[in-house]
Specification:
One of its GO terms (cellular component) is plasma membrane. This protein is of the alpha/beta class. Helix content is about 35%, strand content about 30%. The protein binds adenosine-5'-triphosphate. Adenosine-5'-triphosphate binds near residues 15, 22, 24, 44 and 46.
């Protein structure tokens, strides 16, 4: 049997503001095997980012459970969620996952330290593959949009995650920069990392092993 990297079991998430209630997720179930690449697509507001945030344990579902490599992520103390995330999950988010007062290389090092797996060789290899060797000492604020997206991927992969979550990872990239990013994600999947990518990009849909379409907070 294939190892299951992430299980989302009947996830519900409602946002309430005054009398308004947004039902962002309404019973989403998803299972992703080690090494599998799943694209989560759907119109704006369909719940893609909400789903990724719950899988990362950065927010709690109002119903349902998230399991990462067989360990419960949802509804447990934040310190335990953070430890599980640091060890098992890589996150690439639209607004960047780079800490501004650390250089690109220091950002990668920090992600490795949090996971307890420091490797200069891996850091330099990631930066090389992403065309960032010359930007290792750069501050995040000095990076172009494309460079920042690639540096974010280096950080997300620093801990050799069992699960990579990427929210519009190629949103900032032109076709020329999209290719190495997707190639590195494919390489990572071949080592057993499960990948969930929320994206509107047709290239990402074609690239994925499986496409899951959300509409109004449900899997279509
Ligand atoms: N923190 C929040 N507070 C209130 N409503 C929210 C919050 N986050 C998301 N929502 C609402 O939940 C719904 C799902 O949002 P979500 O960001 O998950 O969609 P999405 O599919 O990722 O959209 P996009 O493609 O535009 O990024 C939307 O109606 C959104 O307005």
């Amino acid at each position: 049997m294939e190892a299951i990297a992430v299980t989302a079991d009947e996830l519900y998430r409602f946002y309430r503001a005054g009398d308004e209630e947004t039902r962002a997720l309404r019973g989403v179930t998803l299972e992703v095997a080690a090494g599998e690449i799943v694209a989560v697509t759907g119109p704006s507001g369909s719940g893609k980012s909400t789903l990724l945030t719950l899988l990362a344990g950065l927010d709690e579902p109002d119903g349902g459970t998230v399991w990462i490599t067989g360990r419960r992520m949802s509804h447990r103390p934040p310190a335990e969620q953070a430890a599980l995330r640091a060890g098992k999950v890589g996150m690439l988010v639209q607004n960047g996952n780079l800490i501004e007062h650390l250089t690109v290389a220091q950002n990668v090092d920090l992600a490795q330290r949090l996971a307890g797996q420091v490797s200069r060789k891996r850091r330099n290899g990631l930066l090389f593959e992403l065309g960032l060797s010359g930007r290792a000492g750069a501050w995040p604020s000095s990076l172009s949009g494309g460079e920042a997206a690639r540096a974010g991927l280096a950080v997300a992969l620093a801990n050799r995650p069992a699960l990579l979550l990427a929210d519009e990872p190629t949103g900032e990239l032109d076709a020329h920069s999209e290719t190495p990013v997707l190639a590195l994600i494919r390489d990572q999947a071949q080592t057993g990392t499960a990948v969930v990518i929320a994206s509107h990009s047709p290239a990402v849909r074609r690239f994925a092993d499986r496409v899951v379409e959300l509409a109004d907070g449900r899997v279509r």
